[in-house]
What we know:
The protein is mainly beta. It has strands at 24-30, 42-45, 63-70, 79-82.
Amino acid sequence: MKITQFETKILDKQGERLKGLDGLAMLLVDVDYDGKIFDMDRTVFGKDIGEDGKIGMTGLTESIAVVAIDKHGNESRSFIIKNK
């Protein structure tokens, strides 16, 4: 998996919006999303994501759902990834 974009409204000490993956705390991943219920299977912490956004993960199915959580605890809506 690879994160290509992440945005948050969190500001740094200088009042500037955090850029890139700097504001990302974690990802919650449902590796076999059924289209109805998000059932978290894995947690990926921001510190474990490479600077290029790559995440090594096995056991992914054709339908994956991910919830991103920023460093202030704000959650994104789940988004669905179709694995190729």
